[in-house]
Amino acid sequence: MPAPLMHIESSPSLPREADVVVIGGGVVGVFTAYYLARRGVSVALLEKGRVAAEQSSRNWGWCRQQNRDARELPMATKSLGLWEKVAQETGEDTGFRRCGLLYLSQNDDELAGWAKWRDFARTVGVTTHMLSAEKATERGKATGRKWKGGVFSPTDGTADTSRAVPVAALGIMAAGGSVHQYCAARGIELSAGRVSGVVTEAGTIRTTTVVMAGGAWASSFCNQLGVRFPQAAVRQSILAVAPGANGLPDALHTARVSLTRRGNGGYTLAISGRARVDPTPQQLRFSREFVPMFARRWRSLAPGAFEGWRQGHESLRKWVLDDVTPMERNRILDPKPDMRQIRLTYQRACGLLPELKRTAISHAWAGYVDSTPDGIPAVGEIEGIPGFILAAGFSGHGFGIGPGAGHMIADIITGSEPIVDPRPYRPERLKTAAWGKVAEF
Ligand SMILES: Cc1cc2nc3c(=O)[nH]c(=O)nc-3n(C[C@H](O)[C@H](O)[C@H](O)COP(=O)(O)OP(=O)(O)OC[C@H]3O[C@@H](n4cnc5c(N)ncnc54)[C@H](O)[C@@H]3O)c2cc1C
């Protein structure tokens, strides 16, 4: 069964024009439209399937500063504050709690890495606590093991992946924007070289500003406009267990397995970073750009299957705007989970936390995690196409920083002081090789 997800109704009709059209109803697109609508900008959000049905409901739900790359940390910090406000602003619970994140380890090098990050975090005012062996063992008592050490980040938290993004989408409509599910954007119309409209499967919307927040579909969409966006996705498999286990931490990372308490009292279980690489035409096209990333992460990666080719999100094909496109043929990217890994994850989790043996697997799913070559999102207006803003490549970190990213994009569009410095995210940086620039975590 795929990841649980709250259902929301769409707006009744597609507008003929809008100040801004946002393509993609994941966390990034939804929060962009949310902050625009709340400023009185007329905005339409297009989602080819259901809001949050791809990566944005398939993830762990961690909203973390801990171990963030310096380029992303300011956005992570701002996002935590924004997550807190969404519930007040919408009157709906997103499940966000600053429950703190617990990391436990038996490995000296890993502990040294976390201590190094703690020293850096201090310089930018972020608090995180290194745990001695005694304190780590105490905090990790549900494991019944002695630990060499750990780290606890008290101001980080988690949100409920089954409802957080749909709740924010309801907030778009409450603020006067519109949300259109099962409505794919087929392409962009240009007049005199700048954006003049978005062609959807249900008609054209006149606009001068488009945000492409299509997650794993962004590069193939950009390719239609002749824009080269190096992006690749890997398939991660993950599972949820039903409620029934007591006394476990809300969010725990260990090298062998990690767990997160879900909104319903069950737990999400996963092996951090473990993924399969499914070859696709797009991966072959950008393979050179991703060598530095692969050199850093290869230990966690395993060869995949033709699953990715079949899904069509990384096609290099050019399509026409008056016929059905790959986005309409695949409303929800729902790749097959790696069942061997699902079993291994559950086995490891029950070994680490025997209390989990009282539960059963309720859901197992996979998600394609879309990444840039340096592991930092690509956000900004594309050179040479005024009005076309790219916001994709969130590289496995986008859920937690989605509110900050959406706020920053709304700031750029409305000419306000950006909530964080947008320069580290400029898509143009991807024209140079990522050697020495791949995000650490
Ligand atoms: C297993 C897993 C664990 C993760 N854990 C975490 C975590 O703990 N914390 C964290 O911060 N991040 C985590 N992530 C990463 C995070 O989920 C993503 O970075 C984030 O959700 C990306 O959001 P997005 O809006 O860019 O893309 P998505 O959520 O993928 O949304 C893109 C949307 O665009 C739509 N779309 C695409 N093209 C079109 C089109 N032409 N017209 C209309 N709609 C279109 C798609 O249907 C899709 O719904 C994890 C990811 C996975 C898979």
Report on the architecture of this protein.
The chain is α/β, with parallel strands linked by helices and 441 residues long. The protein folds into 2 domains: 357 residues, 3-Layer(bba) Sandwich (FAD/NAD(P)-binding domain), CATH 3.50.50; 54 residues, no CATH class. It contains 13 helices and 21 strands. The strands form 5 sheets. The chain has an 8-stranded mixed β-sheet with strand order 5-6-4-14-15-16-13-19, with helices on both faces. A 6-stranded mixed β-sheet has the order 8-2-1-12-21-20, with helices on both faces. Helix 1 links the parallel strand 1 and strand 2. Helix 1 runs parallel beside helix 6, helix 1 packs parallel to helix 13 and helix 3 crosses helix 13. The longest helix has 18 residues. The chain is globular, with a radius of gyration of 21 Å. It starts with 19 loop residues before the first strand and ends in a 27-residue tail after the last helix. The relative contact order is 0.20. The mean pLDDT is 96. Bound molecules: flavin-adenine dinucleotide. The site of flavin-adenine dinucleotide has 40 residues, from helix 1, helix 2, strand 13, strand 19 and helix 13. Keywords: Oxidoreductase. Pfam families: DAO (PF01266). Belongs to the DadA oxidoreductase family. One of its GO terms (biological process) is D-alanine catabolic process. GO terms for molecular function: D-amino-acid dehydrogenase activity.
